[in-house]
Amino acid sequence: xxxxxxxxxxxxxxxxxQLQLGLKESEEPVERLTHSFTQLAELIQTLTHEPTDSATxxxxxxxxxxxxxxxxxxxxxxDRLVQQLQHVTHHLQETTDLLADSHxxxxxxxxxxxxxxxxxxxxxxxxxxxxxxxxxxxVATALSEYQDKKTSNHNExxxx
Length: 160
Known about the structure:
Layout: H1 7-49, H2 54-74, H3 76-99, H4 103-120, H5 124-134, H6 139-152
């Protein structure tokens, strides 16, 4: 993989891009959770405060169960976000340790670390951002290209 020439800059750009990606990919699930919790509260309010017949109560309970399941599914973004944040913090800590070394060994170790990072990622989104950053893209360009690719493959589910 071609690097931009400055391994420290590449590591910092990669960390920035991964953090921004995690934040961006968390927006929609958080909005879904907010909507879901609002609907849950409304369903509970209806069940507890409005007189309803047995059939209506059964229907409301089914809606409540469905809404709870949707909330659980929406929370899966959190696992991805935690994994991305753990990777970034781990790499930043290792980079901090490398910066304490002499300049000559630091640059060699930074290059080695940068190569090793790509092998540690388990999510395709992380690997793609890694490839784009090491190909010399700016953070904004890498995120934009990733989002364009993701949009064109919107029906695929990423397993991690």
